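forwarding from the other thread:

> can someone predict this with manganese (II) ion?

sure thing
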Amino acid sequence: MLRQIKDRIEKGNRFLITTHIDLDGDAVGSCFSLYWALVSYKKEAFVYLKDRIPYKYRFLPGPKDPRYLINTLPGERFDTVFVLDCGDFHRVGQGYENLKNNGFIVSIDHHSTNSGFGDINLVDEDASSTAEIVYDLFRYLGIDISYEMAINIYTAILTDTGSFRYENTTSKAFTICGHLTRIGVRPSFIATMVYESHPKERFILLGKVLNTLETHKDGKIAMAHITRDMCNDSDALEEFTDGFVEYIKEIDGIDIAILIRQTEDKRYKLSMRSKGDVDVASICRIFGGGGHKKAAGCHINGDIGTVKSMVLEAIKG
Ligand code: 5GP
Ligand code: MN
């Protein structure tokens, strides 16, 4: 598979790189690092991101020329379309079906629920992050990893491992990050940018969200919710809620942490985290979502009360 991808990179000239909606560090970092790799081959590469880059990831170096960072899907064809960090094709966002018309699809991913939608699927569920697989690809290609590639990969691994706390924190992840620091990445700088540069509105909203905290099943399940009104009242953007579920996960004795965020009038996005043996990806799959055993997500339609009972019912079943 690596051989085929190498061939496509060497023989192709124009590439499109994309990832999932609800951008996270791995999504942005993987796309940008691959962008710089293709540029180092003197290829033309476009990064298509449907969503705006969250504030805390804007320091990551991407295309300098804005023509190469696009937010609408182009009509033309590319030699290869890289779809990164997407377990399901629809995670690319509205209009994802059209991407098939843009060219041959190479999917690179680490989600256990990956549906195999690409023409080539380079999927390794043991990888800490998609960026780790991209790093392995760079090593296979024999690319000199530049600072721009390194800072993107480091940030992706840092954020997808929850600052080297989750079970996907392997010795390989540390080895790669060690190499990236030797290239010039400064962990303290990245930690400041990602974790200590939040707008104060995030904390005003967090206060309201923590007030909704409730536990179920003898304290084994903790959940909290965010309505659009709560966001508006706090002058907070949706992206400020990234990481809120991790606070709920910090409660002692819980097995599952759930954050329920309103996205439309009667539609909610659920973020689930498992601290015990429960596979939250399999619960999210019941609702058409997916992810990893310990971190997964899905969307459910209904009012907040119905959504909560549906999810509690699914966990029981
Ligand atoms: P989060 O809760 O942080 O949005 O997502 C946790 C993990 O589950 C991430 O790896 C994310 O890519 C994945 N995920 C979140 N929502 C969905 C979804 O609707 N479908 C799929 N397949 N994966 C999701
Ligand atoms: Mn990822």
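The chain has a mean pLDDT of 96. thats all i got for now
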